[in-house]
Every structure is written in C-alpha cells, then in structure tokens.
C-alpha cells in the first residue's frame, strides 16, 4: 500500500462552460500539480465540489484522475454522500480502479449521532477493497465525529487515516492520541499545516494548493528536511496567499479562479456559486506578487 503523506492537493474538478465534467482538463491539471510538488491528488473532495456531483460523476472523475496520474503519486477519491447507500455504491464501483485511498466525508445536511456516523463509516470500509480515510469538516457538514469513534474505527474496522479540516488543534491532538503511529492523520486546515506536522500529522490536504503548489509543498519538504525556520517562512508565505485568495469571494469559486490563472483551465464552479469579481481578484494578485516571485522566479506574474 502506498503511503498517505506529504502535500496532497484537493484537486479542482474541471468543468466546461456548461458546468459539465471536462475530462480533457484532468491530465493537464494533474501534470502541473505533480510538476510543482504535489505528493498526492485528492479528487471529488470539497474543492472538487463533491456535494455538487452525482455518484456517477464522482466515479468518473476518480477514474479520469487515476488515468491522468498514471501511478506517479497516490490518488485519493472522495465518495462521501448524505446516505450510506450512495457512498457504498461509489466504493463498489471503484473496486479495482487503481484508486489508492478512499476519502469518506461525514454525512451532511442530516445530523447523525456519533453511533450513526460510526456505523456509516464502518459500512463503507466493509464494502471497500481500497483503504478508507475519514474526512471531518464540521463547519460544512454540520457533523463532527469524536476522537472516541475515530479511534474505534481505527482499532476495530481498519480505518487507515483521517483528514481534519475543523481548524481545531485540540481536536487534531485528540485524533492523534486516539489512534496509532501507523494512522495517517492529515491536516485539512491551511493555516495549521506546520503546527499539525509538529504534532504528528503525516501531511496536509489543501484546496488552495491547486494554485501556487510550490509554496504549500515547501512547508512539508522543509519541515521533513529539519529546516524549521524555512518551514515557518513557507507557512507565512502560504498564509499571505490563502488569505488574499479567500478575500475574493466564496469557496470554491475563489480557488477555481486562482487555479485558472496560475495552473491550468478548470472552468467555473457549479452554481449557485458565482464567478469572482475581476477587481477583487486583481487586488489579490497584487497582494501575492512578492510571494509568487520567490517561488516562481522564472514564470512571471500576469496581473
């Protein structure tokens, strides 16, 4: 089994102008992300607009990503849904697909109890021939799995890792303490990448890393090389970029606009999310020009 570690990009799902899947856009995007330092690609997550995709679309984008990546880095495929039935259908359709890891976001809209979340994740693990990681993002789903249940899923059901995007470092610590050294705890909060690594996280999954991937990957690479001062500087640079992009509008349109500008064509976000204002995006580019020049000295920044 491949390792779930490093800087994993939560890949934007390419759409055409009619908001249909643009399969031709997957490989150019994956190529650029890997070239710029991605240690893994995570498709059909929050940045991949998982809640706006059908089960069939999630499966199709996962297969396209596997083909595009061609074994160069691990591929994580999101299968989360409101119901256990839909999530199980997706993992069954991905059997033998070449996907390396399954990501299961906690059920959203409905408000299942801790026991119901446990049963949901356990059922997906049982149906999958691919290792499963949990994905906790309570600010979006309205559900927040406990460290106790995460530990139980690890010990009794074979859960191999989890991404926590809550931004709550105490929760991150509790998840780490409830599991083992072989559990892949992954940070999903961009301001806390470096701190999470020092706490024992194995890496980070980042949406803004679709654009300026080199900065976010530098945090991990410098930390692993023992250069704490360099890692701190990279985290500070990353904070400049992520704050500037977040200020332009609503996610994921913010990151999609940045990805279209810096990386590869990924089209619009599906409505109801609207395009980003040109003036706000121009202001963001101005705010990041010095950081951009540090990591991309030969590319130049088009304003």
**Derived structural class:** alpha/beta
Low-confidence stretches: none
Count of individual beta strands: 8
Radius of gyration: 18 Å
Order of strands across the main sheet: 1-2-3-4-5-6-7-8
Order of helices and strands: EHEHEHEHEHHEHEHEHHHH
Helix content: 40-55%
Which oligomeric state applies? single chain
The main β sheet shows up as: 8 strands, parallel, barrel
Key descriptive features of the protein:
single chain; 303 residues; alpha/beta; 12 helices; globular
Report on this model:
By secondary structure, the chain is of the alpha/beta class. It has twelve helices and eight strands. The chain has an eight-stranded parallel beta barrel, surrounded by six helices. The protein is globular and about 50 Å long. The mean pLDDT is 97.
Write the layout of secondary structure elements.
Elements: E1 6-10, H1 26-35, E2 40-43, H2 55-69, E3 75-78, H3 84-93, E4 101-105, H4 114-127, E5 132-136, H5 138-141, H6 147-157, E6 161-164, H7 169-178, E7 184-187, H8 193-199, E8 203-206, H9 213-224, H10 228-246, H11 253-262, H12 278-295
Parallel strand pairs: 1-2, 1-8, 2-3, 3-4, 4-5, 5-6, 6-7, 7-8
Summarize the structure.
With 303 residues, the protein is of the alpha/beta class.
